[in-house]
Specification:
With 419 residues, this protein is an alpha+beta fold. It is built from eleven helices and 16 strands. Strands 7, 8, 9, 10, 11, 12, 13, 14, 15 and 16 form a ten-stranded mixed β-sheet that branches. Strands 1, 2, 3, 4, 5 and 6 form a six-stranded mixed β-sheet that branches. Strand 9 and strand 10 form a beta hairpin. The chain is globular, with a radius of gyration of 21 Å.
């Protein structure tokens, strides 16, 4: 629901709000926050609340370290897991310089800009995410172990699925915060789960994903468990993917017609595929990410197909035009969803602008195909080092992301590749 600043000030005064958390993300997508009292909220809306940007990797140096958090009124939500007496609410924030101009390295702002660019060209992008995670047991001190919470498999039922109640609590908490989960179930790995979301605007989808990961970790901890979003937490088991579903609308019509890729829709997909190698470092930002590719339905080769889960891009069959979409299967949950969506949307829009032709459908199971059928197929980067090199040399990446973000990202990852 959209609120005005005056309505929010009235709400906090009348609803026993005692703390306000201001959320923002660093260049890796890690959610950070600071808290203010309600009496500071009006100032936050007008001028922002300052923080030390030099303490956040990839932002600014100590010689120019003041940035300000300005709450986005549309993101007001009560945190249901905090006390209901003396409530705690949160806002996602835009980051600005002292003079009020946007901080170019704010990845939420970067995504907002890409959405505006698409809108100027007459296009609206909708995004739905499917996020996987593992639940692990904790020891007597509450520290995480490498023991999965259960030994269940895909869509397993209780009592084998021991995480059923945890998923229920996650979904209820999401609904309390105004976020509508679409599907939840046990995934193929032991202790692995997935929650899928309805399509929404890219910025809201990115905000909701950040909220989702916070809720999962909070609910897991309340149940004596540890939630793990790493791309490959268990070497010989399925990895955690972040499948990104995209639809593109023009004049209110979904360009991805049911089971029919043509014209602008095909060019959008062609643009994404054309730049996928260059942007993979941002979609898959850890060394662990590259252990996931090519195994347990995670892609390795660059191709697309209807319904085929071995491909980089799957186009789910649909009888409903409103649900027609493409599903990009390479990203993992350790990415910064704001910069990732900005790069994907920019790539797709470039594909439409240049009228790129869509490569032929790859109608093979790449996990079981003969080596001769795979010999000439282009692959995703095989390592983080290769992906970083491609990103650093990419004129496309540098046209979408500002220098401060690209430089900060590359330097930070190289300092600690297991970040």
């Amino acid at each position: 629901m959209e609120y005005t600043e005056s309505e929010i000030l009235q709400y906090t005064a009348e609803n026993d709000v005692k703390f306000i958390k201001l959320f923002f993300t660093d260049i890796f997508g890690t959610l950070r926050s600071l808290s203010i009292q309600p009496c500071e909220l009006e100032r936050a809306f007008k001028t922002g609340i300052s923080f030390d940007a030099s303490a956040v990797k990839g932002f600014l140096g100590v010689d120019r370290s003041d940035l300000f958090l300005v709450p986005d009124p549309s993101t007001l939500s009560v945190l249901p897991w905090r006390p209901q007496h003396g409530r705690v609410v949160r806002f996602y924030c835009n980051i600005r310089y002292p003079d009020g101009t946007p901080f170019e390295g704010d990845t939420r702002y970067i995504l907002q800009k890409q959405c505006l660019e698409a809108d100027k060209k007459g296009y609206e992008v909708k995004v739905g995410t499917e996020c996987e995670f593992y639940l692990f047991q904790t020891d007597e001190k509450g520290n995480p172990t490498d023991i999965p919470h259960d030994n269940g498999g895909y869509c397993e039922l209780a009592p084998i699925d021991r995480g059923e109640n945890v998923r229920r609590d996650i979904c209820i908490t999401l609904e309390q915060m105004g976020i509508q989960p679409e599907v939840s179930h046990h995934e193929a790995g032991p202790g692995q789960h997935e929650v899928d979301f309805k399509c929404d605007s890219p910025v809201r989808a990115a905000d909701n994903l950040a909220t989702f990961k916070t809720i999962v970790r909070t609910v897991a901890a309340r149940n004596g468990l540890y939630a793990n979003f790493a791309p490959k937490p268990i070497e010989d088991k399925p990895g955690n993917g972040l499948h990104i579903n995209l639809s593109v609308y023009r004049d209110g019509k979904n360009l991805f017609e049911p089971n029919n890729m043509k014209a602008e829709a095909g060019s959008f997909l062609a643009g994404v595929m054309a730049h996928i190698r260059e942007i993979t470092a941002f979609l898959n930002s850890t060394e662990n990410s590259y252990q996931r590719f090519g195994k347990f339905e995670a892609p390795l080769y660059i191709g697309w197909s209807y319904g085929n889960r071995s491909q980089l891009v799957r186009i789910p069959h649909s009888a409903d035009a409103s649900r027609s979409r493409i599903e990009l299967r390479s990203p993992d949950p350790c990415c910064n969803q704001y910069s990732v969506l900005a790069l994907i949307i920019a790539a797709g829009m470039e594909g439409i602008e240049k009228r790129l032709p869509l490569p032929e459908e790859l109608v093979i199971n790449t996990y079981k195909a003969n080596p001769s059928d795979l010999a000439n197929l282009e692959k995703l980067p095989s390592s983080l080092s290769e992906a970083l090199k491609l990103a650093g040399e990419s004129s496309f990446v540098n046209s979408v992301l500002p220098e401060v973000t690209v430089k900060g990202f590359l330097e930070s990852v190289l300092e600690n590749k297991n970040f």
